[in-house]
Amino acid sequence: MSDLKRAQVLVLGGGIAGLVAARELASDFDSIIVLEKSDQLGGSIGSSVIAGHRVDSGAEAFAVNRNDALALIDSLGLTDQLVSPARADARIRSGRDTYLIPHGILGIPSDLSDPSVLAAVGADALAEAIEFDARPWDLVGSISIGNLVRTRLGNAFVERLLSPVVGGVHAANPDLLDSDAIVPGLASAAANAGSLTAAVSKMRASASAARPGGAIMSLRGGMHTLVDALALELTGHGVSIRLSAGAATASYVQDLWHVTTTAGEEFTSGVLVVALPSEAAAQLFATDHSLTEPLAKIQTTDVAIVLLALRAPELAFAPLGSGVLITSDSEGVEAKASTHASAKWAWVGETFGETHLLRFSYGRDGRLPDDLLKLHELAVSDAKVLYGLQAPEVIEAQTILWPGALVQPGTGHLAVAKTLSEEVAGRKNLAIIGSGLGGNGITGTIRQAQEAVSELRVRYFERE
Ligand SMILES: Cc1cc2nc3c(=O)[nH]c(=O)nc-3n(C[C@H](O)[C@H](O)[C@H](O)COP(=O)(O)OP(=O)(O)OC[C@H]3O[C@@H](n4cnc5c(N)ncnc54)[C@H](O)[C@@H]3O)c2cc1C
Q: Over pLDDT 90: what percentage of the chain?
């Protein structure tokens, strides 16, 4: 076949996982091709130009509880671009109440004597939580994060704190999400400490010791600048990046992988790294059931982001601090979360000047509003209610749809991920990476990609 393109390594998917994998492998292999379906690299770390400025349209920050993203940023020479939020005083809106999110993890407080806990749940629920969290630990096995918090702190902590935060971050009901997949190590740390809040406090303290400050950081210019830096380095090392090249099939014949694209191009390689959303990965392997079956079991959900550049005098004082997470019973509001981006990030505030940038996310419990074409109108209406705006002047609005972009790690998720990892471990020259296995979040995805690629390297060179 004359137009068959050959490479030592094919990486499918140009999100953060695929780019990190290509970078890790570039020291061992001379010819690497990355195939990306869309016309832009970065996947969920996307960008859009609004009111003349390029900003993040998907992920906007990364967790610093582990060092993986920070180390990558450092190795790309971007440390001087690191930024912390200018303010970390996000609120929750429930019904008609608005209250601060206490210090902790996903709304789970690190200290029940923090006055914001009392303000959030009330005196009765607080007294109950103090009693519950002092009881002997009796939880065993896999447990949802909702159940963990309900059992140790009571239902008010689930309804008023955990649910809105988990809804904002994972677009899901906390009763359906495996605690170990959402906050790895929390349940076992709580079992050891005999208290959930003590475990949260310990985990937050060790994250702050690693990096003083808040739980998240970003880059001046936006998280998408990380993608630009990776792409620049990869091309400098001779890695070929092909945009608008969606992989359609992958088959394994005589020790080689064969990949076809939707445009009918054909590629062959000695090593295959699949860094796709799990649904796309499942379709790729068609008849290879030991891969397609676990991949098809990984659940995902849709999210939509609306960016609004607007002017309104009420925003000058950041009425909701850095932003707000919204419960489903909030009257007159459809969004599940909103960020006052120009208040949260100093560089955004400086870039937009008199104009404010607000971000709204939609897709509560996996359901997007019916009329997606009118989403920006909904965002303007939500902006008025949430931020108390009388007559905002909308400079520009943009809607970005993220179908299937957030993983929903339900209580069987870790078992599925284990089955898939064991299957891949039996193959000499295949890695499957990305948030389907690493979980939602840039830091975890980078870590999973790096670990999977180093295991692949061992398997490949051992058997060569
Ligand atoms: C709206 C939103 C906001 C988020 N906010 C944050 C945040 O603030 N902080 C945080 O840490 N995390 C956040 N996340 C999660 C985080 O962005 C993701 O977990 C992470 O970026 C996933 O990276 P990935 O490489 O695994 O997958 P993706 O980013 O999904 O990349 C997969 C790539 O594969 C490509 N592709 C798909 N099909 C094919 C095919 N057939 N052939 C070739 N290529 C294909 C896609 O176009 C995409 O570029 C957010 C996610 C979303 C959607």
A: 80
CA distance 132 to 150: 9
The atom of ligand 1 lying closest to the CA of 62 is 11
- Rounded to 5°, angle at Cα 150 from 147 and 151: 85
Atom in ligand 1 nearest the alpha carbon of residue 12: 43
pLDDT tens per residue across span 27-38: 999 999 999 999
Confidence of residue 175 (pLDDT cuts 50, 70, 90): very high
CA distance 277 to 127: 44
Q: Which residue from 440, 447, 451 has its CB within 8 A of the most atoms of ligand 1, so it is best to mutate?
A: 440
215-259 pLDDT, tens digit each: 889 999 999 999 999 999 999 999 999 999 999 999 999 999 999
Q: Say yes or no to pLDDT of 1 above 50.
A: no
**CATH H superfamily, domain 118-207:** protoporphyrinogen ix oxidase, domain 3 (1.10.3110.10)
Counting ligand 1 atoms within 8 A of each CB, the residue from 66, 84, 276 with the most, and so the one to mutate, is 276
Residue-range domain boundaries for the chain: 5-45+221-297+409-463, 118-207, 300-407
Tell me which H or E stretch contains 447: helix 442-463
Counted residue by residue, the chain has a size of 464
Q: Using the atom order of ligand 1, give the atom closest to the CA of residue 16.
A: 25
Residue whose CA is at the smallest distance from ligand 1 atom 50: 59
Question: How far is ligand 1, taken at its centre, from the CA of residue 458, in Å?
Answer: 27
Each residue's pLDDT tens digit, 92-111? 999 889 999 999 999 999 99
Residues with CB under 6 Å of ligand 1 are 12-18, 35-38, 43-45, 58-63, 246-247, 275-277, 280, 303, 305, 402, 405-406, 434-435, 440-442, 445
Q: Class for domain 5-45+221-297+409-463, per CATH?
A: alpha beta
Interaxial angle between packed helices 413-425 and 289-297, expressed in degrees from 0 to 180 and rounded to the nearest 10 = 160
How many Å apart are CA 391 and CA 396, to the nearest integer?
15
Q: Whose CA is nearest to atom 27 of ligand 1?
A: 15
Element (H, E) at 414: helix 413-425
Between CA 152 and CA 354 the distance in angstroms is 46
Going from the Cα of 405 to the center of ligand 1, the distance in angstroms, rounded, reads 6
Q: CA-based angle 228:37:374, to the nearest 5?
A: 90
> What pLDDT is stored for residue 210 in this prediction?
56
Cα-to-centroid distance, 331 and ligand 1 (Å): 31
Write down the architecture of domain 300-407 according to CATH: Alpha-Beta Complex (3.90)
Whole-number Å distance, alpha carbon 237 to ligand 1 midpoint, is 24
